Amino acid sequence: GAVVSQHPSRVICKSGTSVKIECRSLDFQATTMFWYRQFPKKSLMLMATSNEGSKATYEQGVEKDKFLINHASLTLSTLTVTSAHPEDSSFYICSARVNLDTGSYNEQFFGPGTRLTVL
Amino acid sequence: AQSVAQPEDQVNVAEGNPLTVKCTYSVSGNPYLFWYVQYPNRGLQFLLKYITGDNLVKGSYGFEAEFNKSQTSFHLKKPSALVSDSALYFCAVSANTNAGKSTFGDGTTLTVKP
């Protein structure tokens, strides 16, 4: 089956520093990757949609200068949380989708998530 | 705009009993419907999807879901629950008309008691 990895699984950083999270599709090429933030009450919030070779599309209310997304290859997307603050502490999850034809009927394969704690 | 509603925050069933986790949706155009499961501190795992064809879709771990167009529902079911089925379940919908983005419900926590 399709496997998506995320690294690191857990990170603790000081306020004001930047943190990079990597998302890799290990055995398939993902034209589209998604970044989510999951809150303690469990709901998933889509942050951005990332297509290989183009700029990410951010959801309303998500600061693109704070959450930098790069999708340089068909197997790697990165999310950088710049100048992190305690309110950025959360569980960040990426997903990848194989795009066949129009693609929106294909399921997403999710990474295991990254727990970010900002002190 | 598309949306998903999972009306139950929590579902409790006894092991061996049938389970149902409810999902209703709203979308422009033809819906593509998905169920995912999340275990503690993990990412989501794909369970099953409805694209077209037979309204009853069978997926992983003995789960199935029935697409009901008139009721705009896609309830997840299993004939006999296992304790190991205890997890967080998400329903999602997408459509070609929305750049392929999926909208997720808020999730339903399923607890199966021995």
Keywords:
heterodimer; A: 119 residues; mainly beta; 7-stranded mixed β-sheet; B: 114 residues; 4-stranded antiparallel β-sheet; globular
Q: Explain this structure to me?
A:
The complex is a heterodimer of chains A (119) and B (114). By secondary structure, chain A is mainly β. Chain A has strands at residues 4-7, 10-13, 19-25, 32-38, 44-51, 57-58, 67-73, 76-81, 90-97, 108-110, 114-118. Chain A is globular. Chain B is globular and about 45 Å long. Chain B is mainly β.
Main sheet attributes: strand count, strand direction, barrel closure of chain B = 6 strands, mixed
The H-and-E topology of chain B, N to C, reads as EEEEEEEEEEEE
Give me the count of strands of chain B: 12
Mean pLDDT of chain B: 92
Largest interface: A-B, 28 and 26 residues
> H/E order of the elements of chain A?
EEEEEEEEEEE
Name the shape of chain B in a single word.
Answer: globular
State the end-to-end CA separation of chain B: 41 Å
Quaternary arrangement of the chains shown? heterodimer
**Treating each run of at least 4 consecutive H or I residues as one helix, how many helices of chain A?**
0
Helix content of chain B: under 10%
* Quantity of strands of chain A, as a count: 11
Kindly provide the radius of gyration of chain A, computed on alpha-carbon positions and rounded to a whole number of angstroms.
Answer: 14 Å
What portion of the residues of chain A fall into strands of 2 or more residues? over 45%
- Which outline of chain A best applies? globular
Our count of helices of chain B gives 0
Distance between the termini of chain A: 37 Å
Rg of chain B (CA only): 14 Å
Beta strand % of chain B: over 45%
Structural category of chain A: mainly beta
Please write out the topology.
The complex is a heterodimer of chains A (119) and B (114).
Chain A: E1 4-7, E2 10-13, E3 19-25, E4 32-38, E5 44-51, E6 57-58, E7 67-73, E8 76-81, E9 90-97, E10 108-110, E11 114-118
Parallel strand pairs in A: 2-11
Antiparallel strand pairs in A: 1-3, 3-8, 4-5, 4-9, 5-6, 7-8, 9-10, 9-11
Chain B: E1 3-5, E2 10-14, E3 19-21, E4 24-26, E5 32-38, E6 44-50, E7 56-58, E8 64-68, E9 73-78, E10 87-94, E11 102-104, E12 108-113
Parallel strand pairs in B: 2-12
Antiparallel strand pairs in B: 1-4, 3-9, 5-6, 5-10, 7-8, 8-9, 10-11, 10-12
